[in-house]
Specification:
This protein is an alpha+beta fold. It has five helices and 14 strands. InterPro entries: Nmi/IFP35_dom, Nucleotide-bd_a/b_plait_sf.
């Protein structure tokens, strides 16, 4: 009995350690995940590159790079200098006293920290011989439905061609069909619809069959070396005049400043997102 109790205790300890390891692993995976909204882009194919492409599929590669960004809040400004050493000089200051006509205000410079960004490649293989179809209701027993669909897809009069194989899933009303020659699948995808004979005419949706892989996934983070965040800016005058006074102040060598490449002040009650290119220049949105 004592041996049995010892074995049970060992099992509990082992299971407890495994659970802890699983929880730690799950937490690490959650922390490493990065959520990014990727906008819909219209892609124009300008030319065909010479390559050893497979006869039954089209291969494409896209590189996706997330632009680094920073949310600029009210009472803040971003200023980018032409020289990195000027930004370094400003960041050494605890505060900067900026003259605004008859008034003065203390502005605090901060080093800019950007959220992590991602870069990855999307590799896509689109089949030249196969297509997917859906909206094929099970109006007949599954075997008979499959036979009717294959017969319909094999008819040139309906826009089909000689079928190599066809898969049909009764539960989802979807499947895929592979033709013996290229060209048929492409024509069907361009049309987007196919009229099949399943006892009565049924209009199917036709979609391209493709596979994709994400490769060379990289994360990176950093700070623009020529850009400084200014905080604590008081709305002593209108937006344009205040931004001009800030620019004039930070252009003067006597204020440890230098040539300003870009500046953007955000007034009270507003905010904007600044996007940074690889050379450190920011774009507003």
């Amino acid at each position: 009995a004592s041996d049995t109790a010892a074995e049970i205790q060992k099992y509990k300890v082992k299971n407890s350690s495994a659970s802890r390891r699983a929880i730690i692993t799950l937490k690490m995976l959650c922390e490493m995940q990065i959520e990014a909204r990727i906008p819909v882009k219209t892609v124009k194919f300008a030319r065909v590159l010479e390559s050893e492409e497979a006869e039954d599929q089209v291969e494409s590669k896209f590189t996706v790079t997330q632009t680094s960004s920073f949310l600029l809040k009210s009472g803040q400004a971003l200023i980018t200098f032409e020289e990195e050493k000027v930004a370094e000089q400003i960041l050494r200051l605890a505060k900067c006293s900026v003259a605004c006509d008859r008034a003065k205000m203390d502005v605090k410079p901060y080093a800019l920290s950007l959220d992590p960004s991602v870069k990855f490649e999307v590799h896509i293989q689109v089949s030249k011989k196969s297509v997917r179809f859906c909206n094929a209701p099970p109006t007949l027993p599954e075997e008979r439905m499959r036979d009717r669909l294959e017969l319909s897809f094999s008819r040139a009069s309906r826009g089909g061609g000689e079928v190599e194989k066809l898969e049909y899933h009764k539960d989802t009303g979807s499947g895929r069909v592979t033709f013996l020659s290229t060209g048929v699948a492409e024509n069907l995808v361009h049309r987007g619809k196919f009229c099949a004979d399943a006892g009565s005419d049924v209009v199917l949706d036709v979609l391209p069959l493709y596979e994709y892989q994400l490769r060379k996934f990289q994360t990176y983070s950093g700070a623009p070396s020529r850009t400084v965040l200014l905080g604590g800016i008081q709305a002593l005058m209108d937006e344009e005049d205040l931004q001009d006074h800030l620019e004039i102040h930070f252009q003067k060598p006597s204020n440890y400043g230098g040539e300003v490449e870009n500046i953007k002040y955000v007034p009270d009650g507003a905010q904007l997102t600044a996007f940074f290119s690889e050379d450190g220049k920011e774009k507003e949105e």
